[in-house]
Design brief:
single chain; about 90 residues; alpha+beta; five-stranded mixed sheet; 2 helices
Length: about 90
């Protein structure tokens, strides 16, 4: 079976297509891809749906390697709003 493994990190993104035996687990495909070397892995998803290490993959699946968030999404939005507000104030 063919499985596509995708990793998107802050400084790079890579895609690897693997030919694996039927019944391969997500953790096995992750290890086989070699994409996590040097990067912390926060989890995995198949077509955007979070899966565990023991999820059985099927032909044509896209395994997405998830990284940890570097900042809380609410904090990031607050910072963007503050920046936008400061720009508006300068424009006046």
């Amino acid at each position: 079976m063919k499985v596509e493994v995708i990793a998107a990190w802050p400084d790079r993104s890579e895609t690897v297509t693997l030919k694996l035996p039927e019944g391969t687990l997500a953790s096995e495909a992750c290890a086989e891809s070699g994409l996590t070397e040097g990067y912390p892995l926060a989890g995995m998803a198949v077509f955007g749906r979070r899966v565990g290490d023991d999820a059985v993959l099927h032909d044509g699946d896209r395994l997405e390697l998830l990284r940890a968030l570097t900042i809380d999404p609410k904090e990031a939005r607050r910072r963007r709003a503050e920046t936008a507000q400061a720009i508006k104030q300068k424009a006046r």
